[in-house]
From TrEMBL, chain B:
The Lethal giant larvae homologue domain, residue ranges: 283-383
InterPro entries: Lethal2_giant, Lgl_C_dom, LLGL2, WD40/YVTN_repeat-like_dom_sf, WD40_repeat_dom_sf, WD40_rpt
Stretch forming the signal peptide: 1-18
The species this protein was found in: Denticeps clupeoides (denticle herring)
WD repeats: 442-456
Superkingdom of source: Eukaryota
Record keyword Repeat present: yes
Family in the record: Belongs to the WD repeat L(2)GL family.
One protein family per Pfam: LLGL
Chain's gene name: LLGL1
GO cellular component, one term: endomembrane system
Residues of the Lethal giant larvae (Lgl)-like C-terminal domain: 738-936
This protein's name: LLGL scribble cell polarity complex component 1
């Protein structure tokens, strides 16, 4: 992966483009990098808001060592940076929405380079989250009983493991015959640093009731395991949290039926185990976009048109015969070298070039990640 | 629930006929799950019986099943209600009735009944011997031996307590005239009494000439000739040795007793002397050193010479005490049949005509724990007779199986010629009335010892046709076998190896992993554990030639990998003689020599494809040239290189750990014992701390044990171990590169959900020698869910699977539709998906795991033909899951049709062994030695239909309580509408059979 110690980066400022290289193995501190940017663009005393485009085309901020290193590691090998004057900055540009649906840099640039007059007042900034892609959400709050929680984990494109374990157990249910002990499936462990833990929406001893809309009652631990793994790219689990104090209580008439003790600590605060982020229930469903679910629901397998990846024995294979072949890694190398040699030149580029670069970057990313699922069919 | 489902089907079937209903309604009657017949050798047999009049043989098993066999195709199965071992079986000779004794001391009477021209076996009566009043111990009335009087009205029951009871047959009414020790001892001389008990009754034999007299043998050695009518001891034979068995000589003048010291005694019956002290002769055949008991002895007179003595056991304790032997003695001829498994029981087929003077046995039938051996006693040298059924499938462990439907008669005949010829089978009672199967079906089993066995699977009896050994292609250590047997002839006892059950493999690398046969060209590909892929062709001539060897490096210069597993098998150098049959064309060896995981053959293109855990290769066996090799290893996969040996190491490690755990718990147990002793507490002050420490340790230990089973939830990733394993390969003539030109393609699927599709340039037949085959990667598909790809199949424009090679060119199948767009069906462990070709865009899919929580184990494309019309058929995707249930989906719409529970989910080997036929039948192993055959198609059912003519008064018809659940054989009229009632019964039959399957597998 680290075949190129020199890291070319295209930096964009206003309509100005700079291209320079960094040593990937020694990225240094954010402050140094910030200084470098100011130096490269010869704007030593201007406050900047630094953003970058990640592999998904999302515009994400760089404002500390952590996300700076993250940005460097996602460069493959090109890293596109977007610099904005702090006073002109449009914070709403950051996030998933920014680039996922309007992936072309043209659109991105349009967002960033909007004439000042058209811009609305920037919203109140609470904080700049490190990573703006959704990692989890609580869904279907309106249709589920208050005691249940439906959690969606976005494994999609994440390096982070799902990071939890389930076990057999038994729970007590109220039935017409009275209390009855029934077998159930429970979360037994959360892996530190895993997706499940980091969301704070799942906890040990939460009872799993459904997996992607299918009830687990009557299913064995192995069956439920298989179901979860089969849905792992877009896992929706309905749990009955062991800790019932943090349930979302709906406003309105039905609230009266809920216990009054509960409603006291609900409302605007929502407790999260690891990183307590205050958000209102209305916020919780905000990230969830139905059309996005459709997309990931209709998972796409990656199809690569034939290239010379396999080496036939005894004779050289006739060239792939596909007009636009997906270049395999070795083949891509000369092309890559060419770019590296150009890398040193600071050149202003037209939008077209940028768009080309962007595409290359995407292709490169896919190749590097050895054909990991990406939700994209690559037919060039 | 099952019954309901069946009912539904029958109803809908009726409706179909009545209303001339649409095809969609009729669909319900395509499918059907019906366990039809078991093939192979019953697991854990425990009893044997023979009816010389009807010429039927019965075998009882430890799971409580009774299986009756006659002529090939004649089979009955009965299952006791309780899963108790069958300890004895007796035929009520000529009546078609069977008496069985179970381990739980209950007697059961079975009857072969007739219904609509077919016979079946049902239980009509059962009886438990009551405890003797005043004696608490139940073992006293435990039945040790049974004697059925020849006129079949009286059953004598010998017990552990030494009593003999008499039961009226067939009513099982206990007659009030039991015989106990005291009555016998009255006549014994004083010096024999000496206060010792006579012990259990060991043998009961009816006098061959005088029906009222029976011979009773007691464990202590006393034998009594008892007159039933006068209730009087006729003769006493004062044996001193512990008795094992008794047998009369045909004349009734002498009898023979066998004993625990390995000897047998011949006694003369002399009515003038009521008390015989000494036997006429006394022999210990394997003396003089201590010998094991002679468990059973038979004495058969022959017209031509000396009597034939057959005895089991009696081997010298020190030198051959562990052998399973049966000795045949006649004059100076002495043969010690040396078996590989325990002798359960044996009988001879001999003349039963009362008028004849001699027994003149024609054959000896020996039931062993793992096989049935029949010896021809009429032919000098006593050769074995190959059995047409009850074949020990597991003679070497089955490693894979492969089924071929509709075998062309030409190939069939050639295979039969190559195999052994069948001689006369002595057990030929009853007659099969099942219709001759329209198609010839072959079942090929690959075994651990490198053999491939060909079985006739067209009918009820799975008959061995031909055995192919691949071991002779390689240099192995097992070549010195011949010299050993020759040396063996000189030694004493004169051992003769008999039977084919041999569970010990000479070299595990020889094991067969995959088989593929082209039924039109007679080409066979056999692939094994050490990466060997052998291409063979069927030759009618003996041949003597060198073996062509080619190696294919599947690593393709991938660095950083070293193979730590076994070496490849060294092929024999120089020319090798091959018998008529399948002879090798070329041997391809994969490097590294990992077990072959997938293989396929296209005889028309002269290509084979094979895959291992490292990659796959394509080989042109006509030019003997490799075409392609592709490494599928993921860079992070280290386990792929370990080979099987290191896994053995880890097993060792885990064993060691578990032993440590046991030792630890033992140590702590001792500690507890010490603490409970107050003196030690005082003596060592340190032990004062130990209770707390120990309690904590115990708690921790308990916690460790109590820790619930948990499962990690993680998405599959490319780094998962063994992700590069090639799971399936297929050849197809289809559209890969564009929608207008079709051509040969090759598809490979891996464990990590990758599919590689290659376009092949295959030269035409004429140019085969000049031009080489070329392969170009056309498509690479990465399934997003990354589950292992279980199967790939290409469907034509009408959605039908492509025909097999040669089928179209020889006008044996309709040409596939090349106009409409083709599609490829990819079945992974988690879902099925149909992609359009050549674009590979998803068309239909079914996510099985996400819906049901089960994973796909086996899939097959099956043609279901309608019951009412042969013209109408549909394609179905049949899938067996890890939960043992079978799902049927429509193709290519992938709509779920039906689901059945088939195999228990705990029965992993059963699920792994399952193989489907193209017509909707299937086989799976219910024990190491038995295949269960089942049918999903309502049209194609293979089951025993047979008839036995019995000669008996129909006195039992009144007594018979006809419980449907006992009705274990029911016939099927497939095209009859009005057999609904019978079919509902058959669901009970099914349940009973399921129970049998459960009990039979240990």
């Amino acid at each position: 992966m680290n075949r190129n110690p020199r890291e070319p980066s295209a930096v964009e400022f206003g309509a100005e483009f700079r291209r320079f290289s960094l040593d990937r193995s020694k990225p240094g501190k954010f402050d140094e990098f910030y200084g470098l940017l100011q130096h490269v663009h010869r704007i030593p005393n201007v406050d900047l808001l630094v953003g970058y485009a990640d592999v998904h085309g999302d515009l994400l901020p760089i404002n500390n060592d952590g996300n700076y290193h993250k940005a460097i590691t996602t460069a493959a090998p090109l890293l596109r940076l977007f610099l904005q004057r702090k006073e002109e900055a449009d914070y709403s540009a950051f996030g998933t929405e920014s680039l996922t649906r309007k992936k072309t840099p043209a659109a991105l640039a349009a967002v960033l380079l909007r004439p000042d007059g058209n811009r609305k007042k920037p919203p109140i900034i609470i904080s700049l989250p490190q990573d703006f892609r959704p990692v989890s959400s609580i869904i279907d709050v309106d249709i589920l009983p208050e005691t249940h929680r439906r959690v969606r984990l976005y494994k999609h494109g994440q390096e982070k493991p799902l990071g939890f374990y389930i076990r057999d157990g038994s729970s007590v249910r109220v039935t017409p015959q009275g209390l009855e002990k029934v077998p159930g499936i429970f979360i037994s462990r959360l892996v530190p640093g895993g997706l499940a833990e980091s969301t704070g929406l799942l906890a040990v001893n939460d009872e799993v009731l459904e997996v992607n809309g299918i009830e687990v009652a009557g299913k064995s631990l192995d069956q439920v395991t298989d179901m979860m793994i089969a849905n792992s790219h877009n896992l929706i689990i309905t749990v009955k949290p062991a800790n019932q104090r943090n349930n979302i209580v709906r406003r309105g008439g039905r609230d009266a039926s809920g216990s009054s003790g509960r409603s006291s600590d609900s409302g605007t605060s929502f407790y999260m185990a690891s990183n307590a982020i205050a958000m209102t229930p209305s916020h919780i469903i905000q990230n969830f976009r139905p059309e996005e679910e459709e997309d990931s629901e209709d998972e796409e397998d990656l199809v690569i048109e034939g290239g010379g990846a396999a080496i036939p024995i005894g004779h050289v294979a006739a060239s792939a015969g596909v007009t636009c072949s997906m270049p395999s890694l070795p083949r891509y190398e000369p092309h890559l070298n060419l770019r590296t040699s150009n890398g040193g030149m600071a050149a202003s580029a037209s939008m077209d070039t940028v768009s080309h670069k962007d595409q290359d970057m995407e292709v490169q990313a896919v190749a590097r990640r050895s054909l990991e699922e990406d939700g994209t069919v690559i037919t060039l | 629930m099952k019954i309901l489902r069946f009912l539904f089907f029958f109803c809908s079937f009726g409706a179909t006929l009545m209303f001339q209903a649409s095809l969609s309604l009729e669909r319900n009657f395509f499918f059907f799950l019906f366990l039809t017949v078991e093939h192979g050798f019953p697991n854990q047999p425990s009893a044997l019986a023979y009816d010389p009049q009807l010429q039927l043989m019965a075998i009882g098993t430890k799971s409580g099943a009774i299986k009756v066999y006659g002529a090939p195709g004649v089979e009955f199965t009965g299952l006791h209600k309780d899963t108790a071992a069958v300890t004895q079986i007796h035929f009520l000779s000529g009546q078609g009735r069977i008496l069985s004794l179970l381990d739980d001391n209950s007697l059961h009477l079975w009857e072969i009944g007739g219904k609509e021209g077919h016979s079946y076996l049902e239980e009509v009566r059962s009886f438990s011997l009551p405890g003797r009043p005043g004696i608490e111990s139940t073992s006293a009335t435990r039945v040790t031996v049974l004697l059925l009087k020849l006129n079949l009205d009286l059953l004598c029951v010998g017990t552990e307590g030494g009593g003999v009871h008499f039961l009226q047959l067939p009513t099982f009414s206990l007659l009030d005239r039991s015989l106990f020790h005291d009555e016998v001892m009255q006549s014994a001389p004083e010096e024999y009494k000496c206060g010792k008990s006579l012990g259990p009754v060991e043998a009961l034999q009816e006098h061959p000439q005088q029906a009222e007299k029976i011979l009773i043998g007691y464990s202590r050695g006393l034998v009594v000739l008892w007159d039933l009518n006068t209730r009087h001891v006729d003769n006493l034979f004062l044996g001193k040795q512990q008795l094992e068995s008794l047998v009369w000589e045909r004349s009734g003048n002498t009898f023979v007793s066998s004993h625990s010291d390995g000897g047998y005694l011949v006694w003369t019956v002399n009515s003038s002397t009521p008390c015989t002290h000494q036997p006429t002769t006394s022999t210990i055949p394997y003396g003089p050193f201590p010998c094991k008991a002679v468990n059973k002895i038979l004495w058969r007179t022959t017209e031509t010479g000396a009597p034939l003595v057959l005895l089991s056991g009696g081997m010298p304790r020190a030198s051959y005490g562990d052998r399973h032997c049966l000795t045949i003695l006649q004059d100076s001829t002495h043969v010690t049949l040396d078996f590989t498994s325990r002798v359960i029981d044996f009988f001879t087929v001999h003349c039963i005509d009362q008028e004849k003077e001699y027994d003149d046995p024609t054959s000896l039938v020996v039931l062993l724990e793992e096989e049935l051996v029949v010896i021809d006693l009429a032919t000098p040298g006593w050769p074995t007779i190959p059995s047409p059924y009850l074949a020990p499938l597991h003679s070497s462990a089955i490693t894979c199986s492969y089924h071929i439907s509709n075998v062309p008669s030409k190939l069939w005949e050639r295979i039969i010629t190559a195999g052994q010829s069948q001689s006369d089978w002595p057990i030929c009672g009853g007659r099969s009335v099942a219709p001759e199967s329209k198609q010839k079906e072959l079942l090929l089993t690959g075994h651990e010892d490198g053999t491939v066995r060909f079985w006739d699977a067209s009918g009820v009896s799975l008959q061995p046709l031909y055995k192919l050994s691949t071991a002779n292609i390689f240099q192995t250590d097992c070549d010195h076998n011949d010299s050993l047997t020759q040396a063996g002839e000189e030694e004493w006892p004169p051992f003769r190896k008999v039977g084919c059950f041999d569970p010990y493999s000479d070299d595990p690398r020889l094991g067969i992993q995959k088989i593929c046969l082209c039924k039109y060209s007679g080409k066979l590909v056999v692939a094994g554990t050490a990466g060997q892929v052998i291409v063979m062709y069927l030759s009618d001539e003996k041949s003597d030639h060198m073996i062509d060897v080619a190696t294919v490096d599947l690593l393709q210069d991938r660095e950083g990998f070293t193979w730590k597993g076994h070496d490849r098998l060294p092929p024999k150098t120089g020319s090798v003689v091959f018998a008529p049959g399948f002879q090798p064309v070329v041997l391809v060896q994969c490097i590294p020599p990992a077990a072959v995981t997938a293989v396929t053959l296209h005889a028309e293109w002269n290509l084979i494809a094979f895959g291992t855990s490292h990659g796959f290769g394509l080989f042109d066996y006509h030019r003997r040239a490799p075409v392609l090799a592709r490494c599928t290893l993921h860079p992070n996969d280290s386990l792929a290189m370990e080979g099987p040996l290191s896994r053995v190491k880890s097993l060792k490690k885990s064993l060691r750990q578990s032993f440590r755990r046991i030792r630890k718990s033992r140590v702590s147990g001792k500690k507890r014992a010490v603490i409970s002793n107050p003196t030690s507490k005082v003596s060592s002050p340190q032990s004062l701390f130990s209770p707390v420490q120990e309690a904590n340790a115990q708690l921790a230990e308990q916690d460790a044990e109590m820790a619930p089973v948990q499962r990690r939830i993680e998405a599959r990733s490319a780094d998962d171990s063994l992700s590069g394993v090639v799971r399936c390969l297929c050849f197809a003539d289809t559209f890969l590169r564009d929608g207008t030109h079709h051509g040969p393609t090759m598809w490979a699927g891996t464990n990590s959900g990758s599919v590689y599709a290659y376009a092949l340039e295959v030269p035409s037949q004429e140019k085969f020698s000049e031009q080489s085959v070329e392969a170009v990667l056309g498509k690479e598909i990465q399934l997003m869910h990354r589950a292992p790809v279980v199967s790939i199949a290409v469907l034509d424009g009408r959605g039908n699977p492509l025909p097999e090679p040669y089928e179209v060119s020889r006008d044996l199948a309709k040409a596939p539709d090349m106009q409409g767009s083709h599609s490829v069906l990819i079945a992974s462990e988690e879902q099925f998906k149909v992609f359009m070709l050549p674009k590979v865009s998803a068309k239909t899919k079914f996510k099985l795991t996400a819906h049901e929580g089960c994973r796909v184990r086996k899939v097959a494309l099956v043609t279901f033909t309608s019951v009412s019309s042969e013209e109408y058929c549909e394609n179905g995707l049949v899938c067996l899951t890890n939960l043992g249930d079978i799902h049927v989906f429509s193709v290519p719409a992938l709509r779920p049709q039906v689901r059945y529970d088939c195999i228990r989910k705990e029965d992993i080997s059963g699920i792994a062994s399952c193989v489907f036929t193209k017509t909707g039948q299937g086989f799976y192993l219910i024990s190491p030695s038995e295949y269960e055959r089942f049918s999903l198609s309502a049209r194609v059912i293979t089951e025993p239909l047979c008839q036995v003519d019995v000669d008996r008064l129909h006195d039992l018809t009144v007594l018979r309580y006809s419980k449907l659940s006992h009705c274990l054989h029911l016939q099927f009229e497939h095209n009859e509408v009005f057999s609904c009632v019978i079919k509902i019964c058959s669901s009970k039959y099914l349940q009973a059979r399921m129970k049998l399957g459960r009990g039979g597998w240990r």
